[in-house]
Fold:
Amino acid sequence: MTNVAVLGAGAFGTALAIHSHSLGHRTRVWAFDKGLPEEVAEKGENKPYLPGFTVPPDMQFTNDMAEALEGANLVMLAVPSGFMRSVTKQAAPHIPRDSLITSTAKGIEQDSLAMMSEVIAETLPDHASHATYLSGPSFAKDLASRLPADVSLAAADIETARGVQEILHSPLLRVYASDDVIGVQLGGALKNVIAVACGAAFGLGMGASALAAVMTRGLAELARLGVALGANPLTFLGLAGVGDLTLTCHGELSRNRQLGVQLASGRTAQEVVSSQKAVAEGYRTAAAVHALSERTGVEMPISEAVYLVCHQGASIRDEATRLMTRPRKDELAGIFHPKG
Structure:
């Protein structure tokens, strides 16, 4: 029997734990929220984060990190990117030396601009060589509902990814192995920013054509930055790129899309984010992408507009006008060149 520890009892962590348990793995979940393990045990569901889905009685939730990690063969880090550093530091003394690691966080650390692979290299140096990074179109509710989904799982050594693939792959969750750690992480992070823009376009009533244009040109920005940072451009045509982008920009369950819709209604980003229990990663990631764009010289006008609205108080309508009145461009000439 494989022992799986899921660190993070949010919607996606809980859904992954339910999936893992359904495959016959012994699965334990570490929860940050005090009292949540007792509530889950009593009610048989994680009502604050994933209501309506039964948590098996033998799937343990705990606030004790050491207890959750004892004997773990696979440790899944299902925490927001802003908490990855603190959680992995806390977990480090308790993770068995031969454990595989999988990060599901879709974001960039705001202060350091580090991807999760860089954070894990610093906080879990003994495990960094067998760490993997999961991304792709996979809403927590779909996974918990046992609806089919496909995801990408990357590791520096693709054999490591295949090892985790063997543990998580099923007829309902197809896991594709990859060796593009940078591309898979960037796809998962940047699509959240573009989803905010798509939600805003929808909320402003701009129509389906504009929504498709924002998503497509957002994909071009994602690819340009990815290439500048060493990613394989083909990754952005796959599950961690266009796949996750499509779901997050169009899916009504997307918190980042909802953030954009709320911005279009006149609310500030701070008002929306402070009212949500779950994290809309696109809000924080927009600031990190702005800094990365400046550092690399990669032009990212849609991402910049999201940053200005979310963090600088810019008018969302003014930014939409600015995007539509930019100088004329050749479409393909800018796809993999910094000046797009």
